[in-house]
Automatic annotation (TrEMBL), chain B:
Record keywords: Cell membrane, Membrane, Transmembrane, Transmembrane helix, Transport
Name of the protein: Transport permease protein
Record localization: Cell membrane; Membrane
One Gene Ontology CC term in the entry: ATP-binding cassette (ABC) transporter complex
Family: Belongs to the ABC-2 integral membrane protein family.
Source superkingdom: Bacteria
Residue spans crossing the bilayer: 41-63, 75-96, 117-143, 155-177, 189-205, 251-270
A Pfam family per the record: ABC2_membrane
A GO MF term: ABC-type transporter activity
Topology relative to the membrane: Multi-pass membrane protein
Domain (ABC transmembrane type-2) ranges: 40-276
Species of provenance: uncultured Thermomicrobiales bacterium
Matches recorded under InterPro entries: ABC2_TM, ABC2_TM_bact-type, ABC_2_transport, Nod_factor_ABC_transporter
Length: 338, 278
């Protein structure tokens, strides 16, 4: 059964500078108990999608259901079954961490004592117990973020919406949050997660949907998406810029395919049709032509590559001085130096 | 997590008046907890009123003649109270806008809480908060020579009237706060509406001294009727135009205003809240 369904969602925003079509017929389904990673460049419509599904925005057209409830008609009923942690922490700065959680618990209709118990549990879980009685104003960005996530879990939701939940978290907090998400998933919670960290989607999500310009443009498991854009590639970094053209010709010939050249980083990339055999061939030919190289590697496409290929522009995190498939997600990369 | 980790989700929101009240009180409690955390707000509200008292009682007061005699300070203080509760709506507006911008309203809107509890909670909080501010100002008033000459019930009737007005103006603040985008514009809009309202009134000068065409406006002005009503109830000088409805029935007229303001602004505020970013 699908915990989330969306059909033909359209949402336009009117602003002074004109009309923005944030969602343009977005379709989406998330099976119960699974984690869906929603990827997309800035402005793709991720937050808009989450806000519609979490009953905060009304779509202009299309319909969506969450655990069987229509997000517009049954919004009030639905709210008791969802938890939302938006892109920006939405907690009361002038209350303490505990006061925030107790208040949200009460508003989820828990009794006062239950709400207190639940708050303490969450404070513990998100490593905020020491700061529990401090006013949130004195929290760091990451602590606020964690409190916000705790707030989303207060009502033990069946469906959890997390809009860029780990943005601004340090690596340890990020790993801790991943554990929380996995744990929620084990408990049967359906999770829709947007992220800019492709590694994160790779790590957590059963399925990934790539959204661009308000539409889903691809969907599948991380592996499916990776194989969709092709197999392994060879990457060569040439030592001297003056050799680039000659090297490109050789690599292109050896790989029987298009070789993309990045002048700035002196990097050549081409599909490695014959895997390791291709790399041997390239090394041999470059050596013969007396072209010095700094690095050569065979790599499998990463979700970064998927992202770039599909959306045609770099994910915000990719350093802009590189050609894109930059190691923004280093650990997920399968980099085998030859 | 533990085995107690059973979804509470099965509990359908039961709605109804009880929920509305409980949730409203939770929101009011949240606002109350914030008061000592941002003491500047209360302090400035009180200082602002005291500045007006000092300015008018000690600086301009001597130059303002009171027909029929009486102490200018006794005349002034009920007006200052009315002005204070009218200006309270700016605080409400700023608070609402801030909540919207900080995302707290979105958080509330994603919770299964009673639908207008955020607003009723805020207005109930305003009642409690302004009661505190009024108490401080009254003590300050007594210190500069203001006296209550009416009976105890009359005194409390006056206080109650001030508080009904707080409630009404709170809804005005709610609507402004949910409509404008920035805290600065909430502030600007509030002052733009409230300065004329409190100055074209009997707060600082008797309406007699106003130009003829302004006089009816000043006399029907809710801030004036509230001021006149409390002056009457407390036995403070009230040199109102001798004849005319506002002069004869300031209490009823004030209550009428309160009903009218709530009847207009509360539904508009609730509607605005429900249609937010929709
Ligand atoms: N309140 C608004 N008023 C006007 N335009 C808006 C509003 N909210 C979003 N938009 C526009 O709608 C589009 C989609 O925005 P959305 O916030 O859903 O993107 P996103 O995928 O979450 O981006 P990001 O990765 O930057 O968070 C953008 O072009 C954005 O400028
Ligand atoms: Mg976003």
């Amino acid at each position: 059964m699908d915990a989330i369904t969306a059909e033909g969602l359209v949402k336009t925003y009117k602003s002074k500078s004109g009309v923005v079509r944030a969602l343009d017929g977005l379709d989406l389904t998330v099976a119960e108990g699974t984690v869906l990673g929603l990827l997309g460049p800035n402005g793709a419509g991720k937050t808009t999608t989450v806000r519609i599904l979490a009953t905060l925005l009304r779509p202009d057209a299309g319909r969506a259901t969450v655990v069987g409830c229509d997000v517009v008609r049954d919004a009030q009923h639905l709210r008791s079954m969802i938890g939302l942690s938006g892109q920006y922490a939405a907690v009361d700065e002038n209350l303490t961490g505990r006061e925030n959680l107790v208040m949200f618990g009460r508003l989820y209709q828990l009794s006062t004592s239950e709400a207190r118990r639940r708050a303490d549990e969450l404070l513990e879980q998100f490593s905020l117990a020491d700061a529990a009685n401090r006013v949130v104003k004195t929290y760091s960005g990451g602590m606020r973020r964690r409190l916000d996530l705790g707030s989303a879990l207060t009502g033990r939701p069946k469906v959890l919406f997390l809009d860029e939940p780990t943005t601004g978290l340090d690596p340890r907090s990020r790993l801790a949050l991943w554990d929380v998400i996995r744990e929620r998933e084990r408990e049967g919670t359906t999770i829709l997660l947007t992220t800019q960290y492709l590694e994160e989607a790779d790590e957590l999500a059963h399925a990934i949907a790539v959204v661009d310009a308000g539409k889903i443009i691809a969907r599948g498991t991380a592996d499916e998406l990776k194989s969709q854009i092709g197999g392994e590639r060879i990457e060569v970094v040439v030592h001297a810029r003056t050799d680039l053209a000659r090297a490109a010709e050789i690599v292109g010939r050896d790989c029987e395919g298009d070789c993309t050249v990045n002048e700035h980083t002196r990097r050549l990339t081409a599909p490695a049709r014959n895997g390791a055999q291709s790399i041997v061939q390239v090394v041999r030919d470059l050596d013969e032509a007396a072209i010095a190289i700094d690095d050569i590697a065979l790599r499998r496409p990463t979700l970064d590559d998927v992202f770039l290929t599909l959306t045609g522009h770099a994910a915000e995190l990719a350093p802009s001085d590189d050609d894109g498939p930059a190691p923004a997600t280093q650990p997920a990369q399968d980099r085998r130096s030859a | 997590m533990t085995s107690r980790d059973v979804p509470v989700s099965g509990v359908a929101p039961t709605g109804g008046l009880r929920r509305e009240i409980t949730d409203g009180l939770i929101v009011a409690g949240r606002n109350l907890k914030r008061v000592p955390r941002i003491p500047e707000l209360a302090v400035f509200a009180i200082i602002q009123s005291i500045v007006f008292v000092v300015l008018f009682a000690f600086v301009f007061g001597g130059a303002i003649p009171l027909e029929g005699g009486g102490s200018y300070r006794e005349f002034l203080l009920p007006g200052i109270f009315a002005q204070t509760v009218a200006f309270a709506s700016i605080t409400t507006a700023i608070g609402m806008t801030d909540d919207v911008n900080k995302g707290i309203i979105d958080r509330f809107r994603s919770l299964p809480m009673a639908r207008s509890a955020v607003l009723t909670g805020r207005t109930v909080f305003d009642l409690v908060y302004q009661t505190g501010i009024l108490a401080v100002l009254m003590v300050a008033g007594l210190a500069v020579g203001w006296r209550v000459r009416g009976s105890v019930p009359e005194f409390f009737a006056g206080v109650a009237l001030l508080l009904t007005f707080v409630f009404a103006m709170s809804w005005v603040g709610v609507l402004i706060g949910l409509t404008v985008r920035t805290v600065e514009s909430a502030n600007q809009l509030g002052f733009t509406v409230l300065f004329p309202l409190t100055f074209v009134s009997n707060v600082f000068v008797p309406t007699e001294s106003l130009p003829g065409w302004l006089r009816p406006i000043a006399e029907w002005n809710p801030v004036s009727t509230l001021t006149a009503a409390t002056r009457d109830l407390w036995g403070n000088p009230n040199p109102y135009a001798a004849e005319g409805f506002p002069a004869e029935h300031p209490v009823w007229l004030t209550l009428g205003w309160v009903v009218l303001i709530v009847a207009v602004f509360a539904p508009l505020g609730v509607r605005r809240y429900r249609s937010m970013s929709r």
